C-alpha cells in the first residue's frame, strides 16, 4: 500500500512535471496549493487496492486543504468494491465487462497479423477463450499476446482448458495468465532476461537500448551466427518478445527506442 505522503508527492509530480523538494506532508500540501489552489481539477487514481476507510478520509482531508474549489473531483478505479468511505460507495459505478464482439476484435488484432487469415478451428477455439476472459481487456491482451506466437491447435486448446479460468478472483486470473505467458516464452534466454528485470523497482522506467546493453554485459544474450545476428539484434528481438507477451507495461514507441515501465 502506498502511504499518503508518497501519493501526494506523485500527484504533485504529475502536475508540476518534477519531483517535490520535500517529502513532509505540510510542504507537500503547500506545493500542491501552488499548482491547484485557484484551479478546478480532475484527479484520476487508477487501479487502487487500499481498502482502509481512515486512509481515504485522511487523503480527502489533505486534498481539501489543497483546494476547495467547487467542481474539482477525484476518480478512483479499482477492482475491489470494499474500498474507501461511505461517500465513495454511494457514488460508485460498477463497470461491466466489454461485449463479446468488442472482446473478439481486441483478441483478433492481438493474435492475428493484419490481413492474415486464420483457420476456422483456431477462430472457434479463440472465441471460446474470449468468452472465458469475461470481458476483461487485460486478460484479452495477455492471452492474445501469448497465442500470437503459436498456430497449433494443441497450444490453443491447452489455454482454453487451463485451470486459470477456475479462479474466482479477477486479480488471480490475471496473475495466473501472466504466469502462463512467462511459462510459454519461446526460449530460456527470454525467460532469463525477464527474470533479470526483477532487480528493478516497480514502475522503473527504462529505455530498450539501455536494457539490452545490460543483458549483453551480463552474458544473457549472445550473437546468433546461424541467423547472422549480432548480440544487440538478439537482445532487441527478446525485448519485442517480452512486449508482445504483455510482460512489460506502458511501452512507448518512437523511431529509435522502446521505453518501458517495468
TrEMBL record:
Molecular functions (GO terms): ADP binding; ATP binding
Residue stretches making up the NB-ARC domain: 5-114
Keywords: ATP-binding, Leucine-rich repeat, Nucleotide-binding, Plant defense, Repeat
InterPro entries per the UniProt record, alphabetical: Apaf_helical, Disease_R_plants, NB-ARC, P-loop_NTPase, WHD_DRP
SUPFAM superfamilies referenced in this protein's UniProt entry, alphabetically: P-loop containing nucleoside triphosphate hydrolases (SSF52540)
GO biological process, one term: defense response
Pfam families the record matches: NB-ARC, WHD_DRP
Domain of life: Eukaryota
Domain Disease resistance protein winged helix: 199-253
Family listed: Belongs to the disease resistance NB-LRR family.
Name this protein carries in UniProt: NBS-LRR resistance-like protein
Amino acid at each position: 500500500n502506498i502511504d499518503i505522503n508518497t501519493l501526494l508527492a506523485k500527484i504533485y509530480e504529475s502536475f508540476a512535471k518534477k519531483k517535490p523538494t520535500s517529502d513532509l506532508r505540510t510542504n507537500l500540501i503547500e506545493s500542491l496549493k501552488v499548482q491547484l489552489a485557484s484551479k478546478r481539477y480532475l484527479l484520476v487514481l487508477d487501479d487502487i487496492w487500499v481498502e482502509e476507510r481512515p486512509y481515504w478520509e485522511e487523503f480527502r482531508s489533505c486534498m481539501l486543504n489543497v483546494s476547495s474549489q467547487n467542481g474539482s473531483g477525484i476518480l478512483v478505479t479499482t477492482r475491489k468494491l470494499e474500498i474507501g468511505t461511505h461517500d465513495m460507495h454511494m457514488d460508485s459505478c460498477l463497470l461491466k465487462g466489454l461485449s463479446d464482439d468488442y472482446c473478439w476484435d481486441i483478441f483478433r488484432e492481438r493474435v492475428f497479423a493484419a490481413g492474415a487469415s486464420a483457420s476456422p478451428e483456431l477462430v472457434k477455439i479463440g472465441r471460446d477463450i474470449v468468452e472465458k476472459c469475461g470481458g476483461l481487456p487485460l486478460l484479452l491482451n495477455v492471452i492474445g499476446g501469448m497465442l500470437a506466437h503459436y498456430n497449433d491447435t494443441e497450444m490453443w486448446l491447452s489455454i482454453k482448458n487451463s485451470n486459470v479460468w477456475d479462479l474466482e478472483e479477477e486479480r488471480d486470473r490475471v496473475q495466473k495468465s501472466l504466469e502462463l505467458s512467462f511459462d510459454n516464452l519461446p526460449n530460456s534466454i527470454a525467460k532469463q532476461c525477464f527474470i533479470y528485470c526483477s532487480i528493478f523497482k516497480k514502475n522503473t522506467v527504462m529505455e530498450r537500448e539501455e536494457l539490452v546493453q545490460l543483458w549483453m554485459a551480463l552474458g544473457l544474450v549472445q550473437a546468433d551466427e546461424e541467423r547472422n545476428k549480432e548480440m544487440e539484434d538478439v537482445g532487441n528481438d527478446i525485448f519485442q518478445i517480452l512486449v508482445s507477451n504483455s510482460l512489460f507495461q506502458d511501452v512507448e514507441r518512437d523511431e529509435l527506442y522502446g521505453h518501458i515501465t517495468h
